[in-house]
Amino acid sequence: MKDAFGTPQSLLVLGGTSEIGLATARRLVARRTRTVWLAGRPSPGLEKAAAGLRDMGAEVRTVAFDALDSESHESTLGKIFAEGDIDMVLLAFGILGDQARDEDEPLSAVRVAQTNYTGAVSAGLVCARSLQAQGHGSLVVLSSVAGERARRSNFIYGSSKAGLDAFAQGLGDALHGTGVHVMVVRPGFVRSKMTAGLEEAPMATTPDAVALAIETGLRRRSETVWVPGALRVVMSALRHVPRTVFRRLPV
Fold first, then answer.
1. How many CB atoms sit inside 10 A of residue 166's CB?
2. Does residue 244 register a pLDDT over 90?
3. Average pLDDT for residues 33-46, to the nearest whole number?
4. I want to staple 32 with a disulfide (CB 3.0 to 4.6 A). Which of 7, 70, 214, 234 is the partner?
5. What is the CA radius of gyration of the chain?
6. Is 34 exposed, middle or buried (0-12, 13-18, 19+ CB in 10 A)?
7. pLDDT digit string, tens, across residues 85-127
């Protein structure tokens, strides 16, 4: 169960090598979290991430998880919840893709959509059902400001995040009053391995800053978190820019 400050004692990270996911895990372990599950494709990176959290004093277990293998999600995630209650699930997996390539290669675009949206819907529903069955817990979903309005430069990725965001909001409404808290996190450009080599957008942030925002959001029982917070105002304005004007903006 969570302590008085909203810190979970147990954490499941879907996307176990995600830089934001691991930054969040480190921050929570430094507070009170003692049990961490890292779910992801088996790799040296996953094992290294687990070792780092163990060095901080957490009990860490890794589990093979593939966002694209939706048929395995009930079995894989069910086994984790069968081991004991999970206070917080962080849905942190996702891929950026390559816009130019994905426009020319539809199957590559489909992989982005299936990972970021279809896989998240599957895993999210499985976890939500388990959280509801235990009667408590938080599901934190990493969305993106890219999902707020489709941009020419990354509309394939943005559309997948738009779908994820809408799904998570609806799921939060469906679970309201059940004891399960759903929080949608909308970071802007995050300096990470995934964005290495890309031109940095205004108000860029870091995995550690997103982790801090997640921790604060948990404590406040927030339903939506923007990182940085100023993006809420910026995106509100961009949503209402006429399309003919929006096309000419350098976005």
1. 14
2. no
3. 97
4. 7
5. 18
6. middle
7. 999 999 999 999 999 999 999 999 999 999 999 999 999 999 9
Tell me if the pTM is above 0.90: yes
The predicted structure's pLDDT at residue 2: 57
Alpha carbon distance, N-terminus to C-terminus of the chain: 43
Q: Is 157 a catalytic residue?
A: yes
Entry field: residues in the chain: 251
Q: Which residue has the tokens 């589990």?
A: 63
Q: What is 209-242 written as a DSSP string?
A: HHHHHHHHHHHHT-SEEEESTTHHHHHHHHHTS-
DSSP output for 93-125: ------HHHHHH-HHHHHHHHIIIIIHHHHHHH
Distance of CA 67 to the CA centre of its chain: 12
pLDDT over 60 at 3, yes or no: no
- What DSSP assignment string belongs to 155-206? HHHHHHHHHHHHHHHHHHHHHTTTTEEEEEEEE-SB-STTTTTSPPPTT-B-
Identity of residue 175 = L
Spatial contact of 84 and 78, defined as CB atoms under 8 Å apart: no
Q: Which helix (H) or strand (E) holds 78?
A: helix 73-82
